[in-house]
């Protein structure tokens, strides 16, 4: 199984001003393509902290993903730090400069010298185009190990990860088969559910893992499997069999399957029953 870690860079994340949604988005997207995150880290905008985290992760992981610190401001230190770490020098990357010029011209904005700095990249990295923004990503290789630096803007990172980064990972590391099922329960505490699950959990295939996820809308039981793709059919059968057993075991508590929001479930139920829902507001003055 491929070992992958994610490092988010930014003082704002450590101060709690910004929620680290990038790591969660990356984890979900990677799972959709057959990869799991092993570790998530957050470091501040300090060159020494970034270098220390990158060095440690490259020793332990096969793929390291970074987000943040590629912008044009003084606290964006990732590019310079990585250049120093990989014994590189910054040089103008003409395609990135052309991309910057075109993007600024499209928005009728002046391209300043500060913005042009985003087109200077370490000479020994593979530039990764940023179709949704101005800061290009970077790929550094150390043997089969891969380090990807991506912008911290969430929609830019998501697009780059899906369309540029994951395809490059697949060229080196074979994805696995990852699948999950969610059974949602109501009106049963987590500890009571665990006691009841003990009666049947021992009968599940050892490759299945079970997680208890207490939430505002009840208790979610998530069954997951991760194996080589050659065992996909066998493990799908085991996963579906275990899911059916859980539903039968908690008949009085199951209200839904999957991760759709509660309002979606209600809407689906109303359509199935050909019912309508009327909502009236009162006493609030509109």
Roughly how many Å apart are the termini?
Answer: 56 Å
The total beta strand count reads: 12
Rounded mean pLDDT score:
93
- Helix content, binned percent: 40-55%
Instruction: Estimate the global geometry from the Cα principal axes.
Output: globular
Low-confidence parts: none
Q: Quickly count the helices.
A: 10
Task: State the major sheet.
Answer: 6 strands, mixed
Rg calculated over all Cα atoms: 24 Å
* Helix and strand run: EHHEHEHEHHEEEEHEHEEHEH
CATH class of the largest domain: Alpha Beta
- At CATH level 2, the architecture of the largest domain is 3-Layer(aba) Sandwich
The order of strands across the largest sheet is 2-1-3-8-7-6
Give an account of the 3D structure.
By secondary structure, the protein is of the alpha/beta class. The protein folds into two domains: 169 residues, MoaB/Mog-like domain (Molybdenum Cofactor Biosythetic Enzyme, Chain A), CATH 3.40.980; 81 residues, Alpha-Beta Plaits. It is 40% helix and 24% strand. The protein is built from ten helices and twelve strands. It has a six-stranded mixed beta sheet with strand order 2-1-3-8-7-6, sandwiched between helices. Strand 10 and strand 11 form a beta hairpin. Helix 2 packs parallel to helix 7 and helix 3 packs across helix 4. The protein is globular and about 65 Å long.
């Amino acid at each position: 199984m491929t070992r992958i870690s994610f490092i988010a860079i930014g003082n704002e994340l450590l101060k709690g001003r910004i929620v680290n949604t990038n790591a969660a988005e990356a984890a979900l997207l990677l799972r959709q393509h057959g990869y799991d995150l092993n570790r998530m880290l957050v470091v501040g905008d300090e060159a020494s902290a970034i270098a220390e985290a990158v060095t440690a992760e490259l020793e332990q992981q096969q793929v390291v993903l970074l987000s943040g610190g590629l912008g044009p401001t003084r606290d964006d230190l990732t590019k310079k730090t990585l250049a120093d770490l990989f014994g590189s020098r910054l040089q103008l990357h003409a395609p990135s400069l052309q991309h910057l010029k075109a993007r600024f011209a499209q928005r009728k904005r002046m391209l300043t010298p500060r913005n042009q700095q985003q087109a200077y990249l370490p000479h020994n990295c593979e530039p990764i185009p940023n179709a949704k923004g101005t800061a290009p990503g970077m790929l550094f290789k150390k043997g089969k190990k891969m380090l990807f630096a991506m912008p911290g803007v969430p929609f830019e990172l998501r697009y780059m990860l899906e369309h540029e980064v994951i395809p490059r990972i697949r060229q080196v590391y074979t994805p696995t088969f990852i699948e999950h099922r969610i059974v949602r329960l109501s009106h049963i505490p987590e500890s009571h559910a665990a006691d009841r699950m003990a009666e049947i959990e021992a009968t599940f295939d050892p490759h299945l893992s079970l997680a208890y996820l207490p939430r505002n809308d009840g208790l979610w039981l998530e069954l997951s499997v991760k194996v080589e793709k050659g065992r996909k059919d066998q493990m799908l059968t085991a996963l579906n069999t275990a899911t059916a057993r859980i539903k039968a075991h908690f008949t009085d508590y199951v209200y839904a399957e999957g991760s759709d929001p509660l309002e979606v479930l209600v809407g689906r139920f109303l359509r199935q029953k050909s019912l309508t829902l009327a909502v009236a507001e009162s006493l609030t003055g509109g």
